[in-house]
Amino acid sequence: MKSTLFFVPCAVVVVVLATLSFRTMNEEPWKPGQLLAPAELAKIVGDPAVKQPMVFCIGPGAVIKGSIDIGPARDSNNVNKLRQRLSELPKDANIVIYCGCCPFVHCPNIRPAFALLNEMKFTHPQLLNIEHNIKTDWIDKGYPVAK
Q1: 147, exposed or middle or buried, with CB in 10 Å at 0-12, 13-18, 19+?
Q2: pLDDT confidence bin for 6, thresholds 50/70/90
Q3: Which CATH number belongs to the domain containing residue 107 in this structure?
């Protein structure tokens, strides 16, 4: 009887902690509406008559035409570099970040960079929705690349 009285509260605690951990692990710093389709950004980048967003590459290399290479955001020095560049912009600037090294689920760069956008209270941040990698989702589709 005593072991049952001890076991039940312990089991409840374990279930609650596991649920909270799972929820926290699966919450992304962006909302679904902040994902930008590659085709949409390609259309914007390819049209000089359209106001261009600030596009930051927070991955291994700036591939997209007009994007600013920050370097991988898994490195705190590069996050600080991004912070410096962002501090020069108004809070309502249209900002797009991308990595492209791998699918989102494995990417070590997008979360720290997008969290920084939220921390700095930007009102129009977007994340380029690269499902596979930059080659498959941008280059192979013939979208505008840096020269």
Answers
A1: exposed
A2: low
A3: 3.40.250.10
